[in-house]
Amino acid sequence: MSQIDALRDLLPEAAKDLRLNLQAVLRPENLTSDQAWGIALTSAYFMNHTALRDAVLADGQAAGLGEAVIDDAKAAASIMGMNTVYYRFRHLVEKESYTTMPARLRMLRMGQPKTDKATFELMSMACAALAGCGMCLQAHEATLTQHGVSEAAIHDSVRIAAVMQGTAVGLGIGV
Question: Residue 108 contacts by C-beta under 8 Å, 6 or more apart in sequence?
Fold first, then answer.
């Protein structure tokens, strides 16, 4: 039994839909296997959910997930942990004075992923969705479409993040 299957079995009846969704989203039609597992892992890192992270990591590695994707998942979750707070602040306050101030936040890794730009951006998109950062969502969606990523693939990245979040909540409510 996979570790994700074991977690699915821990979801209460109230989260029955998540049991089915968790199984389905990790087999998307519009993403590569590395992208799907990387997005799921990034989401678990971003939410800081240890059990979900460990299960996704173990099952992802069993499915062939490489170190470059794992490292990019860690980097995307970390950087987006910072960016979603900062840019959501700028977006929600809506004062021009803040938008003219330089961010002065280092994020060079976004331009130098160990995988590829599209995969890193899909991972970042998942974090932006989890954080509800409108500016981040718009920026990552624009970058992804510029890199030729389909709307269906972008949609799948957000679906994976949503199911990871729902699973984490479901695990927290217990049986």
Answer: none
Each residue of 54-63: pLDDT tens digit? 999 999 999 9
- Rounded-to-integer distance, Cα 45 and Cα 78, Å: 8
Burial 76-112 (b: 16+ CB within 10 A, else e): bbbbbeebbeebbeebeeeeeeeeeeeeeeeeebbee
Give the confidence band of 14 by pLDDT, cuts at 50, 70, 90. Answer: very high
Instruction: Kindly tell me if the per-residue pLDDT of 109 is higher than 90.
Output: no
Cα separation, 85 vs 134, in Å, equals 11
What span, in angstroms and rounded, lies between the C-alpha atoms of 69 and 81? 18
Residues 6+ apart with CB under 8 A from 72: 38, 42, 113, 114, 115, 119, 120, 123
Which residue would you say has higher pLDDT here, 23 or 70? 70
pTM of whole model > 0.90?
A: yes
Q: Output the CA angle 157-161-166, nearest 5 degrees.
A: 145
Query: Where in the sequence numbering do the catalytic residues fall?
Result: 133, 136
